[in-house]
Amino acid sequence: MRPRRDDRQARPSRRTTAQRCAGIMGGSSAVPSLASRARASKRVAPRSFSLCCYTPATAVYIGAPIMSAPPKLGVLAIIGTGIQGGRQLTREAITRIKSSDVIMFCVSEPLTRDWLLELRPDAEDLSGFYADGKDRRTTYEEMVESMLEPVRQGKSVTAAFYGHPGVFVSPSHEAVKRARREGYRAFMQPAISAEACLYADLGIDPAEHGCLSFEASEWLVFGHRLDPSCTVILWQVDCVGEASYQSEGYNGAHVPLLVEGLLRYYDAGHVGYLYHAPVLPIGRPKVWPVKIGELHETLRRYRTAGTLFIPPAAEPPVDLDMARRLCIPADELERDTHMPPWRVDPRFLIVVGNTVEPEPRL
Known about the structure:
The protein is of the alpha/beta class. The protein folds into two domains: about 70-190, Tetrapyrrole methylase, N-terminal domain (Cobalt-precorrin-4 Transmethylase, domain 1, 3-Layer(aba) Sandwich); about 195-350, 2-Layer Sandwich (Methyltransferase, Cobalt-precorrin-4 Transmethylase, Domain 2). The chain is built from 14 helices and 14 strands. The protein has helices spanning about 5-10, 15-25, 35-45, 90-100, 110-120, 135-150, 170-180, 195-200, 205-210, 215-220, 255-260, 295-300, 320-325, 330-335, and strands at about 55, 60, 75-80, 100-105, 125, 155-160, 185-190, 210-215, 230-235, 270-275, 285-290, 305-310, 350, 355. The strands form four sheets. It has a five-stranded parallel beta sheet with strand order 5-4-6-3-7, with helices on both faces. Strand 13 and strand 14 (about 355) form a beta hairpin. It starts with a helix and ends in a 6-residue tail after the last strand.
């Protein structure tokens, strides 16, 4: 028996069902396809997503497949103040300092600290987590959680670190990784590092002879090999092997082990240069020439120098067969492999032959 007309109207029709599906999809009233229904179900019940990289200029997620769930409201921006504080900050970094809900910083110079507090009197100083004898790993973990706490509350947070925020700043990397794992937007902006200052001040082009760069303790413990035909930069040579913070400097107890390792590659009389970048706009770099065999004694006298630059000690080997295959002319090959004597600008030398001299005028 056919149902009565009013019975048919009481039942949900196909078109009514289609309209309901269309309402979910936000489109026309046509009957949705299986793919459309699948997309609709994803919108109704969004899956979690993995955040790999965030580009603030375009708000584009890069890396893992993008799911339909929006990121959480909190945002973490990591910026660097450069070596000379406000003078080397980018405009974008200054804008973030002024506009973010929460500002935190960890800098080494009082002038930079004062400048930041002038811009944002409510800024929080992360250096308060340091303490003499305290393991730096504990301090770094406290910094990370301090940065993430307001992010989890849905606030925009900017954390400023001395130099480049990603160079020898493990809390910044860990905070970004942890924030992304938790579904928040987090990114790091580049800044001027001590290495960039070294290249400029000493006239070094790392492409000329190649350049190897290691943290001193890392190099010793993990057995990385040096190449005497390259330039070499060793960082934190003054605190090699030290895991705790010391506000008055380090005694260099493990520097002899560093010298022992370097003497496997260099003669004791090979000259390197201890370097300290200028932190004031009116300042200039400080450079101490030092023989590799006398590094420990020199560091005990000049405790502010923690970066060791070692110029090449030998000519690099030449693969003539590879040169022919690359169609490199013989005259060009001869010119490029000749290593000119490397010299530091004498205006920057403040110690000569371990004798303290007045700083020369530029």
